[in-house]
């Protein structure tokens, strides 16, 4: 059951329904066969039948077949049969003043084509201003269009005809195949939208064949649907007729309509006009699609924004750990400046809540050092303390963050003060003091506790200088713990190292201090690239003065230079057993410092001519040596005052003799 409803959209509800044609559409497919559909032709507001366009329209006031019914209440009939020049079907109309409907009993389910004809006529002027809504209902309500007849031409004689205007039937395309033994056809191709429904109306009127024999032929749509066309099925040869077809276009974008003869040698087939109309999709459906698209885009944008916020939150949390990730009282640390990089990670300058400065080393992924090195640094620095070793202030090990906090060492690395920067040059005395301090720190590591520590990464970049130019040994990430008088225990990393390997590395540092150049410089000639080999070669050839930093010229006495080179040479012995301990190295450097001080005193006494007494400044003392290596004040006093330079020289020589190691 299908309903055709009329609803008022303003105060006056009037419809000028003249003809209602309900035509089930034929949907084409590759396997479909054509069957003549049921048709309803209704002459509204009439009690008689009329013929128009080869079709008979039954008056809706005639009682009979129950396949068509309508609402009679609230309706009015207009009949202009005597005065109107319009065709008979336009001379009657039914006016609806309230919601009403026509009902059609359908025998098949599918698409249906509905054609409505309207004519306001000339007797009722208010009909031309009527507004109303027409809807077709089949299971759900689908409004067709809101009609307004405000703009119309009152010319019934030239109104839209049921079939086509006369000029369409004055020409035709025909098939002539009398001399051809093959089945032939004529094809029209139209560019259409892919996968859209199209309404096709073919107009026929045989203007050539006057014979009584029927000129039957085939009509094809897209090559896969065929309809047998016989003019005698449509009231004879001299009567125009049309055929309606609905087709769903394929993906080719073309719609083909063809004519073909039914047998060879037969002149048959003609076509006068062809209409192709595209079915418009329901606008509400398109709107829903747009709503879905907009909603999807909005949801995607929301997901992207939330994802971005999540990433920013993670980044903020990671950044927060630099500032606040340390345990109390370090959570208020403020990172001020990136001051360096190491194998473990970046090093920052920070300030504690008490305004004290610290250095913060933060581990990073892919640094080459990981949890084992991080734990080793904490393990070593938490059990030692020495003036010449950096001290650990705190650490953080939380949520994959590895942070170490050290005392801040103001002046940076020893290497930066020797070469590769614009920092002021260190004097020879300062360089000796730095070497002695570093040697004392390493000696403490080797012998200062029950578990000795092998540093295994001694180099000029791991010796820092504080604001007073005091040396501090740093970076214990790959150090090794050993039980005294035993082999190194197995908790170390894979890098090998012994006490004597630290001594060798320190010997290279001594040469860097003296020569102010890198241990390995590939920009130099081959024989000079390795500093240790080049320095030992120069010593053997007696040209050590050629490798000394030019900024030290005039500051080093030849005998002190020779003694310093001897210490470096001992540290660089190929056989580790022949190398001295860090205790001996430390003592030798202190001895060189005493020689340097004696030289300064000699120069001072010679310059002033002597005043009857000699005052020797307090000498530097090793942390681990007895007073046998220290010149006591009473030892100096016994050399008393004398005005002769001979007595002064004798005093100096005896002091030096007393400092010779046992």
UniProtKB/TrEMBL annotation:
> What main location does UniProt list?
membrane
Q: Any transmembrane segments, and where?
A: 291-314
Q: Mind telling me which Gene3D superfamilies this protein's record contains?
A: Galactose-binding lectin, Phosphorylase Kinase, domain 1, Transferase(Phosphotransferase) domain 1
Keyword Nucleus in the entry? The reply is no
Entries under InterPro entries matching the protein: ANXUR1/2-like, Kinase-like_dom_sf, Malectin-like_Carb-bd_dom, Prot_kinase_dom, Ser-Thr/Tyr_kinase_cat_dom, Ser/Thr_kinase_AS
Signal peptide positions on this chain = 1-29
The EC number of this protein is 2.7.11.1
> Could you tell me the keywords of this UniProt record?
ATP-binding, Glycoprotein, Kinase, Membrane, Nucleotide-binding, Serine/threonine-protein kinase, Signal, Transferase, Transmembrane, Transmembrane helix
Subcellular location(s) of the protein:
Membrane
Q: Quote one Gene Ontology molecular function term.
A: ATP binding
Which SUPFAM superfamilies does the annotation name?
Protein kinase-like (PK-like)
Which reaction(s) does the protein catalyse, per the Swiss-Prot or TrEMBL entry?
L-seryl-[protein] + ATP = O-phospho-L-seryl-[protein] + ADP + H(+); L-threonyl-[protein] + ATP = O-phospho-L-threonyl-[protein] + ADP + H(+)
**Which Pfam families does the protein's record reference?**
Malectin_like, PK_Tyr_Ser-Thr
> GO CC annotations?
plasma membrane; plasmodesma
Catalytic EC class: transferase
Lipid bilayer topology = Single-pass type I membrane protein
Q: Which residues form the Protein kinase domain?
A: 333-592
Name by which UniProt lists this protein: non-specific serine/threonine protein kinase
